[in-house]
Amino acid sequence: MKQLVVILYTICVIPCTLAQTALSTNEKTKLTAYADFYMQGSRLYGLTVTDTLTVWDTISPKPIQYHKNVQTIAQNRKNELCYIKNNELYNYVTGVKQPLSRSKGKVYNLFFDEANNPIVYTSTGILIYGDYYLPNKDDGYSIWSYNEDGKDDIVNKPKACYLDEKSRLWLGFDNGESGGALVFFDLKLRKFIAPNSLFSMYIEKYRGTEKVRTNYLLSYDFNELVTEFPEEVKIIEKDTLYKFPTNITAGHPKGITGNRNGTLYISQSSINFFIMGTGIIKVSPTAYKDFYKITFLNDILEHEEISNEMVVAEYVGSVTYNTFDRHAYYYSDLGFFKITENTDGSFAKEFIAKPEISWSGQPNAVGSGMNVKKFRFTAPDKFFFLTTNNGIGYYNGKTFKYFK
Fold first, then answer.
1. What is the rounded CA–CA span in Å between residue 86 and residue 63?
2. Is the pLDDT of residue 289 over 80?
3. How many beta carbons lie within 10 A of that of residue 71, not counting itself?
4. Using an 8 Å Cβ cutoff, are 388 and 402 in contact?
5. Which residues, if any, are the signal sequence (predicted)?
6. Backbone angles phi, psi at 278, to 5 degrees
7. pLDDT tens across 305-355, in order?
8. How far apart are CA 82 and CA 351, in angstroms?
9. What is the pLDDT of residue 219?
10. Burial, 225: exposed, middle or buried (Cβ in 10 Å; 0-12, 13-18, 19+)?
11. How would you classify residue 87: left for phi > 0, otherwise alpha for psi between -120 and 50, otherwise beta?
């Protein structure tokens, strides 16, 4: 029993201690919490969790404008800030507004398709041209997107989302210790797509037969799975390629990002007494249509030995792509890092900086919630980042400052 206590303490002492400190601090100091931000030129726009759009000129940390009842903000295809308020879509730059036909429910996210038309993700479904689209409840993965307790609020808000170069929404749902998943929505096909794994596909195909038995499941042959589903997987020299969205899964998504070449990065992590389900996944397009190479970058993360086994000891948060230097970056409890690739194809990380910011607990689990939810670059070595407790941070390549 003493050994178990020591192990649990070793795994979670840092994040748990930070959570307890932050909670006691926040009881004394009431801070404004922000849900999202956007930058353009010298202007910073921050959306509070209480639906107020705050505007700063970044020369000064003092806000210069406030706009009430704003539900969500986003950048359109012309790089203009847009927001939704009272069932209307506003363009902050041009001043033009348009009604959202049949809009209902809580507005979660706003996107723009290739033609610069709004795509609104709400608690009632995805709204496109006045029509709503919902995931299929029969899909094992899509169930994570549903709000089973809600009557009017049918679907949950995604914890992470990204619109890729092929007009597919990548939606990450994370219900803490209950699990989570990636779900996709194809804007061109107007339908949700649930990922699947070769292993689960094999079980479903041979359910109730002698092939699906305990001793086989413990020592199955991957080559047999490849043979069973040649339309879903290809073996090319030393690489294994998967057809979208086979095997593109994440149990606790924290961030999704990508570049114009179609390469994406997914971060995942969870903590409940101890860090688990942590990793960074690179999904790269190939010469074969809709086939991707999936690379796990866990080797670059911090590890520690527990019971003679090396396990990830880094609590990973959001990821972002820096268009200035063409590298992906991630945040963890150890700070901000740049992901680099070596000449031999292996990966490494480069430490950038670590902000001294507060941590706080999770509502339904023991441990700390991630204290940085998003970050975006404005120059090769400068970026803004969204915190849970300390407002919107800015790193100028040397020091940090905060907009609250």
1. 23
2. yes
3. 21
4. no
5. 1-19
6. -95, 140
7. 888 889 999 999 999 999 999 999 999 999 999 999 999 889 999 999 999
8. 34
9. 64
10. middle
11. left
Q: How far is CA 174 from CA 108, 201, 255, in A?
A: 15, 23, 11
- DSSP annotation of 150 reads -
Q: How far apart are CA 314 and CA 384, in angstroms?
A: 22
Residues 271 and 30: their CA atoms lie apart, in Å, by: 26
Three-state SS at 214: helix
pLDDT digits (tens, 9 = 90+) for 150-187: 566 788 889 999 999 999 999 998 877 777 889 999 99
Cα separation, 188 vs 171, in Å, equals 16
Whether the CB-CB separation of 180 and 174 falls below 8 Å is answered with yes
Report the C-alpha gap between 89 and 256 in whole angstroms.
25
- SS3 category, 9: helix
Give the tokens for residue 211.
């092939």
How many C-beta atoms surround the C-beta of residue 217 within 10 A?
Answer: 12
What mean pLDDT comes out for the span 190-211?
85
pLDDT tens track for 21-51: 333 344 444 578 999 999 998 999 999 999 9
Q: In this structure, how many other beta carbons lie within 10 angstroms of the beta carbon of residue 236?
A: 12
Q: Measure the CA–CA gap between 174 and 254, rounded to whole angstroms.
A: 8
Indicate left, alpha or beta for 92 from its phi (over 0: left) and psi (-120 to 50: alpha). alpha
* DSSP E strand boundaries for 259-381: 264-272, 274-285, 291-296, 303-306, 309-312, 316-322, 327-332, 335-341, 347-353, 360-361, 368-369, 372-379
What global pTM score does this model have? 0.89
CB atoms within 10 A of CB 362: 16
Q: Which residue has the higher pLDDT, 199 or 319?
A: 319
3-state secondary structure of 205: helix
User: Cβ contacts of residue 11 below 8 Å, gap of 6+?
Assistant: 273, 274, 275, 306, 313
